[in-house]
Every structure is written in C-alpha cells, then in structure tokens.
Amino acid sequence: MSAPVLVLTTGGTIDKVYFDASSEYEIGEPTVPHVFREAGVALEWRLHSLLRKDSLEMTDEDRALIRQACEEAPEARILITHGTDTMSLTAEALLGIPGKTIVLTGALAPARFKVTDAIFNLGLALGAVQSIPSGVYLAMNGTIFEAGKVRKNREAGKFERL
Description:
This protein has helices at 32-39, 60-72, 87-93, 118-131, and strands spanning 5-11, 16-19, 24-27, 45-53, 77-81, 101-105, 135-140, 143-146, 150-153, 158-161. It is an alpha/beta fold.
C-alpha cells in the first residue's frame, strides 16, 4: 500500500458554487472527497481544508500558513487545491521544504460543473504526487510543471513553461 497523501484545500474555482438568484460564485465545501469517491480512489488520504479563498485574494500570510501546514504535516506527499490565478506564486513560496513532494492543482471551471477540467486535473495531481521526486510542482492541462518555471496564460486559458 502506498504512503498516505495529505490533501490541502485552499479554495479557488475548483470549489466554487454558483447561485442563480444572485448570479455570483462563492467558494463552497471541498469537492475532493466527492471526486475521489466517484473515482473509486483506494489509497489512504487525509483532507485538511485550510482556506476558502479566491487566489486573487491570497496574501503572503496565507502563503506562509500553507507553507507551515506543509512543513508540519506528517505526510511526505501533499496535494494542494488552489485557485489558478496565483497558484504559481504559492508554489514558489513552498520551494525548499525538504523531503516533501507537493503538487498544486486547480480548475478553470468549478468541479460541480458538467464541463470542467477539475476531475482530470485532480487525477493528474494525485498520480503525480505519488510518482515524482521531492519538490514542488503544478499539475494543469495534462502537464506537470516545476515551481518557478511556469505561468498562467490567461488569454490562452492554460499554463505554460517559462
């Protein structure tokens, strides 16, 4: 059996809920448990819902909190769900944590939507966190990117290497 994985949720589009009455999105409960259950994920994992923020609202203090949670976690493999707009900044803030494989992922459309990249991205991140060496990575658009070497191209709606 593989080592347990910590899933840290921080908010972002992946967990957004749409309210018809107000035509607004709010960040809801983490969707990871539902996605993992539907996919039949059998490995041992633990959920820690750390924040519920849009990544554009993330502060240096939030990134320090995420880093502290990663450093203090007993798990060596950590999957973080995060908003895509500043995911690369958070990844860079996590560089240098020894002995941990940290993979950040998110979605351009909420996981609750019928058409979404969330489920694919979570699967990619879960596979990556179990199979790549220690370090910090982003799992988006079918690609694993190294932290500090990736950016979000808003116009193209995808991530790309620097």
